[in-house]
């Protein structure tokens, strides 16, 4: 029984090329955190490096070190650190460390080896990054450590909130001031970056020297506006494992939220919320079988869903596609997101370890 996420690496390479054209060939850091948004960190990392990604980005150092262990030699930045994380393996492994506050910088400087760091300023998002009260202290301390040969400041960066044109402009201004303060402290960061996919595409002034591309590389739009030329890279499917004919008024799945309206055929598909399907998409989410799209009947269970296929000739072994590239006639991750009241990022990223990843390209 193969629950399968087929990942098209050619689509991923092509998406990176499409995004490069759409961003005036700004160098790209491809974000492969969270198992490359569920697509598989190592195969995706190799594919995007081949396709010209200048950098890779992960949240955790452990994610970066997994790539190193798999032989991925490209530059990597990791930026989200637990308070007691050991920075030495990252320094040893040549992983750049995103640094967000002065005490963190001190821990990096005290770790053995000479770290490459990229200082993160909070330009308004209110998450990671030094705020205005800490930034001067951070850049001055970093400059002192750099002069003493304890570390090298390679980059200055921040992250956008995607809260509209005014907020973007304010964040760009705050970021630019922070960059000037870093230079005034004697730093000469070779990398300056602010934008993720949405900013890279929609706000040219946010591109600076590099853009950090996540969702677009996986073929999905960062917002409600489709991005021309992108191809969704993941197709989630499973074989039909049982088919039964039932009379009208037959309840389907827990609670009987769904009842058949006529004699019909029910097909059982072995993917459920344990595999990352959002249970809140019950009743509305699409599934395609043999080229026709149906809605899931009743509640999504832990391991399975039921599809009412009417009088269509569906057999055990036929493949059910939950989402993939809609230009091939199957449902999209965006439709799943709409059915669940969430975003496409969450749909692909939550696909769990019980689903086998297979690669094409
Ligand atoms: C996840 C992430 C990105 C990528 O965002 P997308 O919207 O997927 O392009 C970029 N930068 C940071 C700091 C992130 O956490």
List the helices and strands and how they pair.
Elements: E1 4-8, H1 9-22, E2 28-31, H2 33-37, H3 41-50, E3 55-58, H4 61-69, E4 76-78, H5 88-92, E5 95-99, H6 102-110, E6 115-120, H7 132-147, E7 151-157, H8 165-184, E8 191-193, H9 197-202, E9 211-213, E10 234-239, E11 242-246, E12 251-252, E13 258-259, E14 264-269, E15 286-289, E16 292-297, E17 305-310, E18 319-323, H10 333-340, H11 344-349, E19 356-360
Helix pairs in contact: 1-3, 6-7
Question: How widely separated are the two ends?
Answer: 23 Å
Widest sheet, order of strands: 11-14-17-16-15-18-10-1-19
The biggest sheet amounts to:
9 strands, mixed
Give start-end ranges of low-pLDDT stretches.
Answer: none
The helical percent reads: 25-40%
How many E strands?
Answer: 19
| Shape estimate | elongated
What percentage of amino acids are in beta strands?
Answer: 15-25%
Question: What pattern of helices and strands is seen along the backbone?
Answer: EHEHHEHEHEHEHEHEHEEEEEEEEEEHHE
- Any ligands, ions or cofactors bound here, and which? pyridoxal-5'-phosphate
Mean pLDDT: 97
Structural class determined from secondary elements: alpha/beta
- Based on CA atoms alone, the radius of gyration comes out at 23 Å
Q: What's the helix count?
A: 11
